[in-house]
Design goal:
The protein has a domain at 46-150: Winged helix-like DNA-binding domain superfamily/Winged helix DNA-binding domain (Arc Repressor Mutant, subunit A, Orthogonal Bundle), CATH 1.10.10.10. It starts with 10 loop residues before the first helix and ends with a helix. 69% of the residues lie in helices and 8% in strands. Helix 2 (22-41) crosses helix 6, helix 3 crosses helix 6 (109-133) and helix 6 (109-133) packs across helix 7. A hairpin with a 6-residue loop joins strand 2 (92-96) and strand 3 (103-107). It is mostly helical. The protein has a 3-stranded antiparallel beta sheet.
Length: 155
Amino acid sequence: MNANPPSQLDIATAAEIGRSCLFLGLRRADRAAMQIYDEALRPCGLRATQFGLLVALRVLAPVSVSALARKAVMDRSTLTRNLAPLERAGLVRTEPGEDRRVRMVSLTARGQRALARAYPSWRDAQTRAQTLLGEELSGDLIARLHTAVQALVPD
């Protein structure tokens, strides 16, 4: 490592970072996709991230907060902040597990109904995103994203 780093980054290097950085590229793609899904889910009173948590809970629940955080690739505090409005709305429930130190999360009946009502809006957003990307890129992208998560997130 250079003991005396330059006082500023040259424009060409900054431009190259913007073109080649995996993180920046994924975040731009994430924001672009999130706009499509958030817009479609807004009439249902959900954001795309909330819909994703409800889907995960439909599959996994009851599940510990720690296990859900690992599955969602979130830290526990971020997950807890994201679950709070869902719990206030009566869509999810957290309660102590058999081991009182473990918090278990599950969908409520209201949460299951909200998820079912939001599904057509999600499907519309999914169709729109796939149409914009094209069938081949859409399928390739989702497969590669699954592979990337498996490579980047240790079990």
